[in-house]
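Fold Annotation — chain and its backbone

Fields — amino acid sequence, structure tokens

___
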Amino acid sequence: MERLKNCLLKKPSKNDLDDGLETATEYTERWTSVRIIYYTMFLMSLGFSIILTGVWPYLDKLDPHAGKEFLGWIVGANPVGQMIFSPLVGWWGNRLGSIRLPLLCSLALFSIASGIYACLELFPTHQKYWMLYSRFLIGVSSSSVAVCRSYLSAATKVKERTGAVSMVSLAQTLGFIVGPVLQGAVTLFGEDGLPLIKNKLHLNMYTATGWINVFMGILNFCLFLPFVFKEKRIAAREAMMQQGLQSEKETWKSMKPDYLSAWTLICAFFILVFNFVFLETLATPLTMDMFAWTKGEALYYMAWIMAVGAILASAMFLMIDPLCKRIPEQQVLIWGGFFLMVLGRAVYIPMSDSPPKLALPENETLTAMRMEDSMSAYVYGSNFTDVRSNMTRVDFDYGGPITTTDPITMVDAKDFLGCPPAQEWCKTTRGMTITQFLIGYAFTAIGYPIGVTLITTIFSKILGPRPQGTWMGIMTGSGCLSRALGPVFLSTIYTKYGLYWTFGSTAVMMAGTMLWLWQMRQRLVPIPYDASCKGEELVAVIAKQEQATDQKKTSEEATDQQLNGNPKDSNATGDS
């Protein structure tokens, strides 16, 4: 407990207290509250991503007839709930003047909904709809993100805000990355797992993720209790003190943000999250279709792939600050973030010389198959060959009894591996290689953290020192919308049209956004404002306005003199 307390506490330096806005105790309490916000943002992202790689095999186990299209609705339910309820929760927080009660209610709902997801075995019917309902409720609980961003804007000074917003982006990104890694780690439980309630409820590789969310949600709930979390708002006090004004409204009017740049970054954030979420959503079914992996293999290998991706992303977060000291932030965003994401999408366009392996049931007896001299020990079916296979990697040296099985019984009894023939494109398209998949994922693991961090950082700077709750809420909403539409749209496109349309369309989408950012690069320059200057930049802005007013008055006086006659000219005429 002492170690946890030390992690939350931040001791002020001498320079932190020079402005006289707070005492050392208030400073420590304020930063404790900010760090609790970091953990909350991490948990909300984790609650979304932890099920992404496991939800498809879990859904398929509970209801084999649900299909990949219903998978898209389940993944999209979370951001839909967040998008709908974020404005309401934000309004509630403003109405109360405190974020504690909204966050306590949200975290309680998060734990309950995660418990429902972990206990889906207890429902005798309609399990897929209960799964959809639980994911929607987790999304509703995640609407607290907008309140967190609003508080972060109010609880940080101008010079602290960029770093704080960047840390929030880091926390959210790590939540997206760590979630699938945890899912892979719990594959050790297997599909059967450990019985919690005999023949009714099990702790397995699917339900364990729900219980992880329950435990972490309860911990977060405790952190928002009054003896731990103390609300400390300092932004408004700082702005009014520096300008010597009587209200915040007067301060905000002294600086006008570039609204076109702000909306450009909101749209870029939407596109970036849209492309990242779809990859996490489709990663498991994509690898199962392309490489004929079993459910367990897909979860295990994807866990390792995402673990390496998490290491790459963490390294990039550490490199962003020194990189931006040498290269302008907008250039790093365009070339380090979006260009790599474009490459990541383009690499996924099929380049293999061989077709994907089709998951075909055995339509003939094993005896008939033995008559095919060209068959190898492990055969996969494909429309490009005359090979037939039951896709279960049967050893053809098997000397046991040969029985004729009804094909329908076999289809129901066996889990066929490869690209399902029900997806028509599997019969006409080329496959993807494992090298392609790994290279594309590496580009994504590097480009996404650069993009999401710098978009949020530049966005915060463009808005200036004003409280940013509303604007951050809009950006959060754009991310929710992309997370809601991305999985549904792309899982539908993938199922019906295949790899070319899926990755071709996303590559074009990312490339178009990158070109627009390039056109806007001169306007994506943060407003130069440093709190250590004691408001000099704001004073300069006001001075320019006063200078413009003085020039206008001088011009009006000159006009009046011309209309009434110039005294100097009259005196000059008299002297002559």
Remarks:
- Confidence is low (pLDDT under 50) at residues 362-414, 528-546, 567-576.
- The longest strand covers residues 194-197.
- The chain is about 70% helix and 0% strand.
- Residues 547 and 553 are 10 Å apart (CA to CA).
